[in-house]
Write a structure and sequence with these properties.
Length: 121
């Protein structure tokens, strides 16, 4: 159990983890983009990036073209505006953000498991 605690990572820890480099993020994003939420809906990168630390956002955004990055930034700004204007929208957006983070972190932990498995053998 102690080993699990030592090796587990939260979304907030991503910014300071040495293990999380561009190649790692690339592998995780490849899986994330093919995923679905528990509701069955397709995932959305902007929801994942909402309220993320800038270093995490930068690592994720490097995976995309300039045009796609601009589109995602526009989406993020729209979510921010909706949250400011409407309390009900704020709750819905934050729930969706959390669902996206859960899917993303599931893939992060799968990838971490592969790394730890290699180190342990």
């Amino acid at each position: 159990m102690e080993l699990i605690r030592e090796r587990s990572l939260s979304f907030e820890d991503l910014e300071s983890s040495e293990i999380i480099d561009e190649a790692f993020v690339g592998r995780v994003m490849e899986r994330f983009e093919r995923s679905r939420l528990s509701t069955g809906a397709k995932v959305s990168v902007p929801y994942l990036l909402l309220d993320s630390h800038s270093s995490v956002t930068e690592k994720v955004m490097k995976e995309y073209t300039e045009e796609t990055r601009k589109y995602y930034q526009e989406q993020l700004q729209g979510y921010e505006k909706q949250r400011e204007e409407d309390e009900e929208a704020k709750l819905r957006i934050e729930q969706l953000r959390n669902l996206h983070r859960n899917v993303f972190m599931r893939h992060v932990h799968t990838e971490l498991g592969k790394i730890w498995e290699k180190k342990d053998s």
